[in-house]
Protein 1
Amino acid sequence: MRTFLIIYVFIVVATVSILGFRGSTSKKPPLEIFPDMDRQARYKPQAENQFFADGRNDRPIPINSVARGNYHNQIEVFAEDFSDSYLGDTTYNIGKSSDGEFVQKIPIKASNELMQLGHLKYDIFCTTCHGAAGDGNGVVKQYGVLAATYHDDRLRDAEDGYLYDVISNGKGLMYGLKDRMSPKERWAVVLYMRALQTSQNAQASDLSAAQRLDLGF
Amino acid sequence: MANIFPRWVNTLPIKIIIGIILVKTAIVLGVTYYFTPKFTRVGYAPTQPVAFSHALHSGQLEIDCRYCHTFVDRSEHSNVPGSNVCMSCHSMVRKDDPQLALIRDSYESGDPVPWVRIHKTPDYVYFNHSVHVNRGISCVECHGRIDQMEVVEHAMPLSMGFCLECHRNPEEYIRPVEEVYNLDWERPETEEYKEVATGFVHDWKINPPQSCSGCHR
């Protein structure tokens, strides 16, 4: 009995010391005790695939094709002045009219919803560098990121299409965001940027008499 | 008549019984404790090819989750960003740091960075990120305080019991939609908030499936 107990305690202590406790960190991949059909040969997003030469599952968009439901590459496929009731037109997608000029005004109807969308996307993608107020004082300024302020005449007078183009394709040190925002979202950000500009550059005379009274001017 | 069995045999049955009880208890406790994702998965923290710190980027700089994991609210898959996203800042910040060499190479060549995947549901589980984050289930519920992790580790078991726990009582895990990406948010422990949460579940028509085919399609 004594030998048994000694062996028993030894095995228990050995198991606990080898396996450790719950929640302890490990660099080894999780043990799958009953693998069942946990890992199947199927296509998973962003996964590896030895079938293709470049080893990835996600295939690049073939040239002269439009990705279903995601037509960011539309201009690579269609002419500049292309227009379609479903795909929209290239002015909407690239912010330039057919003669290559930037469009003056946002080509979709401004609404409160669009402004909310713009605010949301601005907070995600722009505040880090340009700051919540668009003054170029984002949180990464201390690390040496240079970002433009929206509150100067150059950007106040710029066409909406120009702002859209910079958001899409970047400019100077800024990288484009068209892979992460749909055309509608980019136009929404343009709208929100205009609101930010107004917020820092409004005159009392821009308000109606009632609004001025309300604010006590 | 001489004894057939020696005297020590008298205690043998009780010793055997005690032995069996001890061995079975150890096996049952061991399996309960170790044969579960709470042990096998939790704490998995592989070394990544680039020592990206979520604690710095998400915690300290407060960059929104969606700046990098952009399509989490539109897709079943929460994407790992391309190296162009890293380069948006790191073309200026630490642009010659040897730790980021892999990112720069990836951006130049177009080859993906071989990040090590940590959270994996089994392949017979159809989990959709977008439906969860758009209905008030925060990242933190399944991934833990990523914004405090220097090295990301598997924080929750992600077992079927873990899923069902929330699917049975969504009101205990739901939060206002605007706080989904705020991992720091604390759920108020008040009766009023419980009513509000129950209201979310009712108003957003949340009916999490508990049937097998809800997730195992």
Protein 2
Amino acid sequence: MISKPLFKQSMKANRGMWFFVTFITCSMLAILILVLGNLNIDQIRGSMSDVFIKNSVESQAERQSMTYFHMSSNALDSYESNVSNVKTIRDSYLYLTTVDGDGDPSNGNQPVLTKDQAKVVMTTGKTESESASIITIIDEVEKSSTNFDDTEISNYVLNQIADAFYNELVIEEGEEAASTAKQFISKAITDFNTAKMTNSSLTTTEFATNYIPEIISNMIYEQVITYDDKQIEVSSLLTKETLYSKSSAAIISFRSQMSIKEEQITKEVNNDENFANATEEQKQAEIQKRLEMQVEPTIQEISTSLMEELPENVSNSLSELGSMNIYELVIGSIFFKIAGLLLPIIYIIMVSNNLIAGQVDSGSMAYVLSTPIKRRKVITTQMSFLILSILAMSLCTTIVGVSMLAIVGTDKIDLTYLQLLELNLGAFITMIAISGICFLASSWFNRSKNSMSYGGGLSMFFLVATILGLFGSEVIPSAMRIDAMKYFNYVSLISLFDTTAIFAGESTYMWKLLVLVGVAVVTYTISAFKFDKKDLPL
Amino acid sequence: MEPIIEVKNVTKDYGNGRGIFNINLEIEKGKMYGFVGANGAGKTTTIRNIMGFLKPDNGKITVCGLDSWEESDKAKKYIGYVPGEISFPDLKSGTEFIKLQAELLGVTDLSYSNSLIKRLQLDITANLKRMSKGMKQKTALVVALIADPEILILDEPTTGLDPLMRVEFMEILKEEAQKGKTIFISSHLYEELEKTCDYVVLIDQGKIVEVADMNKIINREYTDLKIEFNEEKDYEKFKLLGYKIVRDQQKYKQVTVSIKKGNFNELFKTLKQYNVKFISEVKYTLENHFNEVIKKERNDKND
């Protein structure tokens, strides 16, 4: 079905253009992959997303510091007051039950009381819950072999407070968060006790102000966070010092904000008519209650990140820009659908015309057709030449692409070998479909000018529509996208080459390519019938 | 004898009176045919139909018994063709062109075309694009003759060639004809055909007007003589003598008479008594002949 000498003739006539176009296209692809792989075209985009990640990590550190600061200073305060309370109860109990206790013998002829008697004395005039805790402490003193010394009291209160935090958090935050908080509280109190040994005048607030940034910065520094489907180690983004200073600054801000608010609230409560007759304690409780409600908003206010400050659409488009797949845009949409197709399409337009219409128009086809050769054979030979030359071109770009990717390494560039092969397959089928249209024009018309303007014009239209459609397609970040321009994609045959699906790893691109194969089959078949039957002015 | 090319009732109508209409033609084997007609008379259309490039609207053409449209590829085995447009395939040199054309024809023995190239003193290594028109025509002829075909069809091959080249070209065709090839050559120049062809086919406005046998035209029974008299009275007197007068020009005192060959003596005897300025033979050319025929044909049509 193929005439060897005619194939040879077509080869000789068109090989110059083939080599030129193939060389340029392969070089473009090679340079593109090398540049993308080596020159870090991703740098700006990377540093942009770095800023966003850093910012979000920092604000996380700030938020946690303040939350933990608030939590731990509360815990430490209640620890201190509880410890002194318990000590007082112990001491009173021991005084009442021990003859040669600590009590001054000259001061009282008070009789030595029994345990039960002491309990009654000590709980007289107390509320029920206070009585219960006093009795619990007395029991503890009795149980203890050391009469409940300071260390034991410390541990006892510590456990009590830690359990209280656990019970409070376990309902809202869950088992894990609650036990983390419990551990944290225990450790903070132990560390506070240790610190107090060297500096007895250390207040809980001072301790927490220094202690929390230390803990938080260490904790966050070790973390691995997930951003845009990528695992990023915090230690690769931020130093421990930065984290420390951020969190300590946040705590200081938090403290000053809270003290301002406390003053305001105190004033409010004092001026409030509802509390005009209230006791000082009731007022204090109300102040604490109102202050507690201010904690969360204050933390939010101080730790607000860069992205949260921006209007939603701006922050959305910024984060989109940061997470944009530059390889999909440059290699997929720009190279394989536009830049890398341009020269092959010009080749297809020229060669399709040369193979049939050009030779009919000039009359040189007469020499071929004055030999004993069927027209069917002429058209299938020219068809095969066109298809095979495009296949050879695609193989060259595939080989060049794959070897460049091997040189650069798939770790440097967000492109797999499979994707590269799929892109080349897609480009090949797209070119075959376009060549079908050009070839049909070439075999339909007897004049080069008609074949070129209809076949070539249509192909160029598809390419131009793809270029214009790019500005409206999803690969362009929304900040730069002109949505209405996407309609150009609907009129371009090249849109059936779905590079986005290839990059997303979806197989939907296959059926679209099948449509293109269909276009090629139909156009080439009509070409064959038309050329076989038509009048030739030779 | 069965004609080697037979055109039967072929019509190819392009509208507006253009095209060919109900053409019948029988080309005998081994003869050389000229095909004349004005531009647009339908020469090229007829040839394209014979070559199977065009499908006739009506009628049928057979070449060596093969349908020129249906079995075009088989018919081409017997035909060498020199197209009217000299445009070669996009190849570098004549050598390459001839080699590829030989491959297309399935010819491996190039000795025939090589001897032809030698005889034509053709430099086929030259770049195809830079060849002169004469060289191109010679190359085209060589290409048509590679397979030594039985029939050679040429569409105005001498158009644009200088007179010397034209003569040389026709000489080669004549030789090929003498070897027994059937040659069908179209032209709008009568001269070159009348000297070489056995038959000349005249086409006018898409219709075959006449197939002239050159033998009959050259060996015509009558000879035309133009006589001019010095005196008016001699002129008037001669006209009354009853000779067959083909043309009468009173202004110049000239008459053209048609004389049967062998009757010259009688005329000369008569003329001795007249004061004659000159006598000359009017050559009866193909052009004269066809002009007469066409005039007659068109008059008939108008009447």
